[in-house]
Design brief:
Blueprint: E1 4-7, H1 9-22, E2 27-28, H2 39-55, E3 68-71, H3 77-81, E4 87-90, E5 111-115, H4 118-127, E6 132-137, H5 148-153, E7 162-168, H6 178-190, E8 197-201, H7 205-214, E9 219-224, H8 226-229, E10 236-248, E11 253-254, E12 259-260, E13 265-271, H9 289-298, E14 307-313, E15 316-320, E16 328-334, E17 345-348, E18 359-362
Parallel strand pairs: 1-18, 2-9, 3-4, 4-5, 5-6, 6-7, 7-8, 8-9
Antiparallel strand pairs: 1-10, 10-13, 10-17, 11-12, 13-16, 14-15, 14-17, 15-16
Bound molecules: pyridoxal-5'-phosphate.
């Protein structure tokens, strides 16, 4: 049956607007599973946000609330292109193979490519001489991007096509990023790149303000996904349904593997399984050694081989009776707990970026 993401619409939309207000030049990111909402819904919402911003006069690139939407891959373009009418930045670097070479010609003028190797810029411009692109600079993440020497090697090439800025993908905050960002900007300036636009990720609002202050002639474009779409957790509820309830006594057999119940209680079947991204590992959000030690020390049911599930009943996360099935999960509820009825809803703690919901309901 159904695993549902319910969104308190007013609260969610207020949050989106408050992020946009605090983040001039915002570039919403819609990629992967659409942060749980789906790519199409995020594209429509980005369009709504851009229109709200435009109505308030936020239209210059450094002021806009989403004149550009970022997607993760070339394959994702088709899902957003009809729902959002601005420019489309592809975050995965262009390569001379695969989906990058199959962009719908109708989108060619809206797509901004990310170029992370000097040889790719030459190859891209050979195919499309007026291509729009950003040059990615390698950061301490060491994912994609050119170093200072690669940037300098571009020479005249960076004066061809339409260079739309320099892109930095920073690691999640561990102290300040500013020292690194300043070094990388210096590299870009000394390479003589004909742009003063900087596309960044994972900078705090304080870091962004500091950057704007020290590079007032630059246009800053913060790419934001998680903090935008998922930043107001109180607006989001995930629920599953109880599909079956079976009383068991200690020693009774159940499940695909014929396990025995470790004590009296109930086996519950709830909606939500591996097809939704429900895994054996319950997200705790707290990965500190101390909390892991506490989990081990709690022992009890965990010690008989049951693993904590993401399903909560009466505010308490319950144990999987066995590994999740494709679309449902079996939970063990020890005797003494309140037993929910078939049809009741139970809360689920999920990682939104790794969960596929059957339904998303926005009020
Ligand atoms: C995913 C991604 C982002 C957005 O990351 P969030 O943590 O979801 O805000 C920004 N830049 C790049 C290059 C990305 O791949």
């Amino acid at each position: 049956m159904t695993l549902t993401l319910t969104v308190d619409g007013d609260r969610w939309r207020d949050h989106l607007i408050s992020v946009a207000e605090a983040t001039p030049g915002l570039v919403p990111v819609a990629k992967g599973n659409g942060y749980g909402f789906g790519l199409g819904r995020l594209a429509r919402r980005a369009q709504w946000l851009a229109e709200r911003g435009a109505a308030l006069g936020h239209t210059a690139p450094g002021e806009a609330w989403g004149d550009v939407l970022a997607v993760g891959t070339y394959d994702e373009l088709a899902e957003v292109a009809d729902r959002f009418d601005g420019s489309l930045l592809v975050l995965t670097p262009w390569r001379p193979f695969g989906a990058a070479l199959e962009v719908d010609p109708k989108l060619a003028d809206r797509v901004i490519h990310t170029v992370s190797r000097p040889e790719d810029l030459a190859a891209l411009l050979e195919r499309q001489s007026d291509a729009r692109y950003v040059l990615e600079v390698v950061t301490s993440m060491l994912r994609h991007g050119m170093d200072a020497r690669g940037l300098r090697s571009l020479g005249d090439l960076a004066h061809r096509g339409r260079l739309e800025g320099v892109a930095l993908h920073l690691p999640l905050a561990q102290g300040s990023h500013l020292g690194q960002v300043r070094r990388l900007i210096t590299d870009a300036i000394s390479a003589g790149l004909p742009t003063t636009t900087l596309w960044v990720s994972h900078l705090t609002s304080i870091e962004l303000a500091a950057l704007r202050a020290s590079y007032s002639d630059f246009t800053i474009r913060p790419r934001i996904g998680t903090q935008l779409w998922l930043g107001e957790r109180a607006a989001l509820t995930v629920t599953a349904q109880v599909l079956d309830v079976h009383p068991v006594e200690r020693g009774d057999l159940f499940g695909y593997r014929g396990r025995t119940a470790p004590k009296n209680g109930h086996v519950l079947v709830v909606s939500g399984g591996t097809a939704h991204g429900i895994g054996l590992e319950a997200p705790s959000g707290d990965l500190s050694l101390k909390s892991r030690a506490a989990t081990l020390a709690r022992g009890g049911m965990d010690a008989v081989g049951f693993v904590r599930s993401p399903f909560a009943i009466d505010g308490k996360q319950r144990l999987f009776a066995e590994p999740p099935h494709m679309q449902a999960s079996m939970l063990f509820l020890p005797a003494g707990s309140r037993v929910p009825a078939v049809g009741d809803e139970v809360e689920v703690r999920v990682r939104y970026t790794a969960t596929t919901f059957d339904r998303v309901v926005v009020s």
